[in-house]
DNA sequence: TCCCTGTACTTATAGGCATTAATAGATCAT
DNA sequence: ATGATCTATTAATGCCTATAAGTACAGGGA
């Protein structure tokens, strides 16, 4: 709170004194509820505000039950991570742009620990803001559920579900995007595909992608056996996975994480296997841990910026009661043509199921 | 504000009612100032708190305390820029960490336009926070001066001066760091150096670097003529600059912007000139516009994270009146040994001044 | 008995704002 | 002139907590 040049704090009472009106009148002007006021009164108050640079104290405002045009941003991990990972950056970009254009400021909550908590001692500091945007790869859903139960307005960025609790969220349509990539590969003549993911995939977004993959496969009358799902436990397994794929006549890979695709590319280079001439590889948008790439990967991109903007818009719409809560919004992913997929090399007579991989490549579902 | 499950809000007054004491007594227990209380009273209050799950409302708490534990962050350009430039990122990292550990949250001000304004309609939203951190390559110093005039507590990240106005800022010691790099080159036997910068350099930080360069040169009894300053108008000029340098027997370059150094590296590669065997190149910390590099540049790094942390600490110290305002802090840059400088190839007999470059390479000062 | 000194609390207030009920003043009809 | 009806503004209240100031009571000394 700024001290005014003359010592005392800058409050509505002070403005009122300067303008020769009551504190209540200042409050009316500040909040635009000044229809009833004389132009003269309004102007005197405005002039005093202008001259002093007065701004309402958000704390007092919240306490008094008002709104403060502050949007909370809670991330379940550090916003600005040490390792230079850009995960949050594009989201924040969209959030900032949209908040800016709608006249809201951002309140970024800091909190210690790797896993950040909303509730500390049973209370949430989010209350400082009118509503909040929640981001994070590893949210504590118990905390989110509690927040929802309390009726606090928030929008999650990313598809999140709580059983028996409807949530507001803005999600990329991974299912649709993955289905589109899968169909594209089928169009190119591929009949033996595999879906690869690290560490059993990334929660709900991962599950959505797999759903799209299987959906497209079923539509093309490819059964589960012909469209396997391989869990890879680390990028160092890339070589072995590639071997398995080639051994079993797989001609196209859908890879959830780009970092895994990069490892595959290295493995391909080592064996003189060409992408896409020998094998097509599509990347499904997850760029965790990647900084730059030699390859122009085909697949799709997650519209992070748009998601951030849409979530911000949605939250503000809810706060200003233009949209009922909860509300879900879906954003299409940006398809990337790229150069890592191509027509199948030697189309096989369809129908032969893909055999089990040799080693610890488990097939899920 | 969290609602009590049973409908009414859970306040100290409510706890007091349950425990049969006054609200003030509850406050005393909550804040551990209960030395004067009977064990019995204390226990009754504690039991009531326990049973209801009451926790003090942080908002009312700060209102009563007069501070809101909010630190404003104002950037004179977009915080999250479109082009993926990480300029602000490391600063924010340090700010976030320090704010977190000192119990402050961050209020990021959004505002439209490329050049962001502190004052909109004659008022400053910074007042929302207890104090603010200011960042930016192109600050509007008139606005900063106005802020200082109003007595608003702020700390600038980066060396900034306003004539006749003392400011608080945390700056990297470019002068010292550049002097150190220069001395290192002199130790390696170089006697013909040049300082290269794009677009007439980067304001105050640029001026500080040049000062360090010239300081070290003078100490080594090299006059201005032997230590020229070349302004380069664009990276596409790198080839020509390199030609000039080689023609004139210059063996070491101090390059303000890494992006210019990258262009020089490309030019060297094109002419089969080796860095550092044929020419030494030191980079003076400015990484604007660079994403990754093939070269392990010698020179120094700007301690952005430390600067952010130090500025945050300084601001909080000022707010909590442990340090008087204004206050200036200097942070040493991290020297980088790197592999782009080496001993001079063919030491010349010293003393010969560097001739003027042929073309539009102007020598400043 | 009266005063004094603690002790164990309570009362009152501030902190800055939003909001509602109340009031003074002006206008109008009767 | 009197009340009725508006209109512009203010006084009062609540939000929840921390804290300074105050009070009631007990015990001890003179």
From TrEMBL, chains A, B:
Residues 342-365 are annotated as: Disordered. Residues 10-33 form the HTH cro/C1-type domain. Keywords: DNA-binding, Repressor, Transcription, Transcription regulation. Residues 10-65 form the HTH lacI-type domain. Pfam families: LacI, Peripla_BP_3. SMART domains: HTH_LACI. InterPro entries: Cro/C1-type_HTH, HTH_LacI, LacI/GalR-like_sensor, Lambda_DNA-bd_dom_sf, Peripla_BP_I. Residues 356-365 have a biased composition (Basic and acidic residues). SUPFAM superfamilies: lambda repressor-like DNA-binding domains (SSF47413), Periplasmic binding protein-like I (SSF53822). One of its GO terms (molecular function) is transcription cis-regulatory region binding. The keyword Transcription applies. This is LacI family DNA-binding transcriptional regulator. It comes from Actinomadura physcomitrii.
């Amino acid at each position: 709170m700024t001290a005014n040049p003359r010592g005392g704090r800058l409050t509505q009472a002070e403005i009122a004194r300067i303008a020769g009106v009551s504190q209540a009148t200042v409050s009316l002007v500040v909040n635009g509820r000044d229809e009833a006021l004389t132009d003269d009164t309004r102007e005197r108050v405005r002039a005093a505000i202008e001259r002093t640079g007065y701004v309402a104290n958000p704390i007092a405002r919240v306490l008094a039950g008002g709104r403060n045009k502050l949007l909370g941003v809670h991330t379940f991990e550090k916003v600005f991570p040490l390792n230079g990972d850009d995960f949050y950056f594009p989201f924040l970009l969209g959030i900032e742009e949209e908040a800016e254009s709608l006249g809201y400021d951002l309140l970024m909550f800091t909190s210690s620990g790797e896993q950040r908590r909303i509730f500390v001692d049973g209370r949430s500091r989010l209350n400082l803001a009118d509503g909040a945007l929640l981001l994070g790869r590893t949210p504590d859903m118990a905390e989110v559920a509690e927040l929802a139960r309390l009726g606090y307005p928030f929008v999650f960025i990313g598809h999140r579900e709580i059983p028996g609790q409807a949530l507001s969220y803005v999600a990329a349509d991974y299912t649709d995007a993955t289905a589109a990539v899968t169909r594209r590969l089928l169009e190119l003549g591929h009949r033996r595909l595999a879906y690869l993911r690290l560490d059993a995939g990334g929660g709900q977004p991962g599950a959505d992608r797999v759903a799209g993959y299987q959906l497209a496969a079923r539509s093309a009358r490819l059964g589960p056996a012909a469209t396997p799902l391989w869990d890879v436990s680390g990028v160092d397994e890339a070589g072995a996975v590639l071997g398995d794929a080639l051994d079993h006549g797989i001609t196209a890979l859908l890879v959830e994480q780009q970092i895994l695709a990069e490892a595959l590319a290295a493995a391909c280079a080592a064996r003189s296997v060409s992408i896409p001439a020998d094998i097509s590889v599509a990347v499904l948008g997850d760029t965790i841990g990647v900084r730059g790439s030699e390859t122009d990967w085909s697949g799709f991109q997650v519209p992070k910026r748009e998601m951030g903007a849409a979530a911000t818009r949605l939250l503000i719409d809810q706060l200003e009661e233009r949209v009922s809560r909860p509300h879900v919004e879906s954003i299409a992913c940006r398809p990337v043509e790229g150069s890592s997929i191509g027509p199948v090399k030697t189309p096989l007579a369809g129908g032969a199921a893909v055999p089990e991989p040799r080693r610890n490549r488990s097939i899920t579902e």
